[in-house]
Amino acid sequence: MTKDLKPAATDFFWGTAAPLLSSGGATEGALMGFPCLRMEGEFFATCDHRTGDLIIKLPQAGVQELIDLGVGQAFAPAGRVFS
């Protein structure tokens, strides 16, 4: 997927990701059919293509800390929380 085809909601994410992609520190992949960032083949970040919300893979304790601070929520598409 080329940059000009990505929705405006994701522009900040992809602009921030650009240095990681160009340095070879990350590669673009897919997660459930949506573009994402991978490191050594493993998913670590994407954003909601509708809202631009950041979705990152964190240890459970990190997820819970962000939830407790009121600045994050568990990723639960279709009601199933990813772990």
Structure overview:
This protein is α+β, with helices and mostly antiparallel strands and 83 residues long. It has one domain. It has two helices and four strands; from the N terminus they run αββββα. A four-stranded antiparallel β-sheet has the order 1-2-3-4, covered by helices on one side. The protein is globular. 8% of the residues are buried. The mean pLDDT is 87.
A few lines on this structure:
The chain is an alpha+beta fold and 83 residues long. It has one domain (3-76). The chain has helices spanning 11-23, 60-69; strands at 27-31, 34-39, 42-47, 54-56.
Q: Any key phrases for this structure?
A:
single chain, 83 residues, alpha+beta, four-stranded antiparallel sheet, 2 helices, globular
